[in-house]
Amino acid sequence: MGYECLLTGLPDLKAGADAPMKQDALLEVFSDSLSASDMEQLRLLLVSPEDEMITRQMEAYDDTIIGQPAWWEEVRDTLSDEDIRTALVYEYGIKKGCKFVKDWFRYNQDLNNILAAAICRKHSFDVRKVIVGQNEVAQILRRNLPQKDFGLGGVIDNLPEIMALLDIDNLMEREKRLDAMRFAWLEQKTLFVNFSLDNVLAYWLMCSMLNRWSVLTVEQGEQVFRDMVADMKKGVQLD
Predict the structure, then answer these.
(1) How many CA atoms lie within 13 A of 69 on its CB side?
(2) What is the DSSP secondary-structure string of 192-237?
(3) Phi first, then psi: what are they for 158, rounded to 5°?
(4) In terms of pTM, does the model score above 0.90?
(5) What Cα–Cα distance (Å) separates residue 12 from each residue in 21, 99, 139, 203?
(6) Residue 142 and residue 144: Cα distance in Å, rounded?
(7) What angle do CA 83, 85, 87 make, to 5 degrees?
(8) Exposure of 130 by Cβ count < 10 A (0-12 exposed, 13-18 middle, 19+ buried)?
(9) What's the pLDDT tens digit per position in 189-205?
(10) For the chain, which residues make up each domain, given as ranges?
(11) Quick check: 155 and 140 in contact, CB under 8 A?
């Protein structure tokens, strides 16, 4: 289904600029315009680790071995509940999503795992306690933490760009560069498609990032990184 009228009527988005509208207002516009099946794809992007459906999935995997993934018991003994919930969000999005949504969840899982591995290497944390998922990148990171490129050369196209983020001391600037990478990824993914669901979903995600930065203070931006490190330290101290 094409969304030419919807998309041409929306304000332009520009990386680093202010968000042209709030997410709740945009959600209302999309809810009135998208088909039911396309709206389900948008709602996948709204799933968070705290959602009740994620809690129910954890309970279902804990209660019976029927339908339980082969990796569940090991993950249950290794990761924090928060990281398990995050892993289940990725799993759900990749399982239920259209190709664009699957790619978005995979991209963020790989990106966040690489950054987490780099923090583990810097602070001598156990990488097995923070890497989520069972895909190729996750498995390589668990095996090759000491290697300079984590053994991901040729696997991740923009690995040097991701690793360069770790050299940025200003934590607020680092977070902004990270979102700029995501913004550029979304632009590239929709470069050769017009007025499709992919364009709608990319617009939602881009607008969400711009809205996040419009309300985020320097202190809040720095806290993102500090909380991540603190959680990893907590995991090490529990051993």
Answers:
(1) 14
(2) T--SSHHHHHHHHHHHHHHHHHHH--HHHHHHHHHHHHHHHHHHHH
(3) -105, 35
(4) no
(5) 10, 24, 39, 9
(6) 6
(7) 70
(8) buried
(9) 999 998 999 999 999 99
(10) 22-237
(11) yes
